[in-house]
Structures are given as C-alpha cells and as structure tokens.
Amino acid sequence: MELYFLGTNAGLPTTQRNVTSVALRMLEERRSSWLFDCGEATQHQILHSPLKLSRLEKIFITHMHGDHVFGLPGLLSSRSSQEGSPPLTVYGPQGLKQFLEVTLGATQSRVTFGLDIVEHAGGLIFEDEQIKVEAAALEHRIESYGYRMTEKDRPGSLNMELLREWGVRPGPEYGKLKNGESITVDGRTITPDQVLGPPKRGRIVTILGDTRPAPGIDPLAAGADLLVHEATFTDEFADLAQKYYHSTAVQAAEAAKKAGVGELILTHFSSRYKDPEQLQPLLDEARAVFPNTQLAMEHETYPVRPAQDREKD
Ligand SMILES: [Zn+2]
Ligand SMILES: [Zn+2]
To answer: What is the reported pTM?
Structure first.
C-alpha cells in the first residue's frame, strides 16, 4: 500500500507541478489502484508513471472544483479505448453525475466499461472484506469531503519452519490455517494458534479535500497512519487561507498533531510557490508543530507504513 502523487498544485498548474491527484496503489493487497481527485491532465501524468488506467478500480472525488475534476472526462474516455478495461466506480459529491453526463454526452464519448457513478453526502462509502472507506464533510467554499480508508486486520504470518517440521507442505492447508481452521496431517491435529503469528493490524490512510480547519477533520484523521492534508499557504498568508477556505501548513500540522497520526504529507500548494525551494518554508513551519511531515512530490512514492513499525526504524 503506497501513495503516488500525480498532481500537487492548487488552482492552476505550473511548469513544475500539475493540479491535484493522488493514487493509492494497492497492488499487493487487491491488484488495483484508487485515484483521489483527477485534475486536468492527470492522464498525462499517469503516462509518466507506473500506473495503468486499466488497473484503476475506483476514483474518489473530494469536491467539484475544476482543479480536482477537469481531468475526469478525458481519463474515462482514454480508458474506454483500452479494450477489456474492467468496471470502474467514481464516488463524489452531488453534481458529479451531471458533470460526467454532460461532458461525456456533449462530446459523444462512448464509455466501453461498466461505469458506476455514486454521489454521496458522507458516511460509509464502501466496504468489503479488505477495506472500508468513510467520508465526512470539511469546510470549503463548496461541499468538500475527506476520505478515511481503514484496512481490515490481516492474519499473521505462518511459522513455516514448524510446519515443514510437521510435514505440512505449502498449499491449501496453509490457507485453511490462515482462515482460522485446524488441519490434520499424519494423524496430528494442528490448530492455527500453534503456527500463526499475531494478526497484522490494518492501516488507516486519510486523504482530505480542500478545507480550512474544520471539526470534520479530527474524526477522519484520528489515529491514521498517514494523513494527506492540503497546505495551500505559509503562515504569512493565514488571512488568505481563511478567506479562500484553505489551510496553512501550520494548520495542517496542528490537525495531524491533534488527531495523533503517524505521518503527515502536505499537498495542494499555491502556485505562488513556483520552485521546489520555495516550498521549503511550508515544510519548516509544519515540522515545527508536527515533526513527521513530508511534502508531496509528484512522481514520488510514499509507502503507507503502520505507525508502530516506524517507531522501530
Ligand atoms: Zn483545489
Ligand atoms: Zn477547492
């Protein structure tokens, strides 16, 4: 499970950075990736990345501002030209359905795969045996949401040495033990607790849409291993942040600290910060409040590590 940033800029693209989009890659866990927001030219960014359109399983839209959705019709059209693309679900606030129907309809774009568009107003968005997605409203000029992904606990590792010693070969028997079933081999009954390590705790990733400090952030981010928070401005422009319903890097760090997250990644930078060096003050200001902070860099990968593992590093 890892994050791959495709766009980290607010409002408009610059020559250095594209508008917002980030992928949650879960190739090991579910052989697919999820996309969060899809600013214009996200598909071009994907061409320069290890991501594949056909492997996209879900797209979550935080809010309907253009810098977060203008890339969606183009991306869906391009995915349609790839034969055999599996179904895809797009989740987002009210207006998403109309936006896609109008843009795809007016351009007579044919979607060749099963496209499900789900409008929501927060709450439980998706759940299966692996993961749960919840959303809650933030505070922005228009309806904006954050998403909290909670991975379910996974079975612990099998003690291979002991199993080999007892004559159990890799195969279906291993699966049974992992599922909590006992097996019998050569007249010996082996119970899962004899050979199975402690369960691996599921990770929590929270990705927020545009927002200024809001009560909805804390429950979404509480105890998350990784929080992605917008940081449009440095502290110097706190008044602008307030006025335009955005956050400063310090406010993002304060939210991370309050929620007790493992790690904070800042994104959605104002285009006033043109060069990478100009982003350094954002990082410095945030780290003064919450040390385990990083800046989102496009085409870079950020593994989602359980917070307790990191302490051992
Ligand atoms: Zn934005
Ligand atoms: Zn916005």
So the answer is: 0.92
| CA pair distance 179, 82, nearest whole angstrom | 37
> If you classify domain 2-153+203-309 with CATH, what class do you get?
alpha beta
- Is 193 an active-site residue? no
Distance 159 CA to ligand 1 centre (A): 48
Residue 103 CA to ligand 2 center (angstroms) comes to 20
Binding residue per annotation — 65?
yes
Q: Where are the domains of the chain?
A: 2-153+203-309, 160-194
What digits encode the pLDDT tens for the residues 142-179? Answer: 999 999 999 999 888 899 999 999 988 888 988 899 88
List the strands of the sheet with 145-151, edge to edge: 123-127, 131-137, 145-151, 204-208, 226-230, 263-267, 293-295
DSSP string, 35-63: EE---TTHHHHHHTSS--GGGEEEEE-S-
- Number of neighbouring beta carbons within 10 Å of residue 103: 17
Catalytic residue among 37, 67, 116, 128: 67
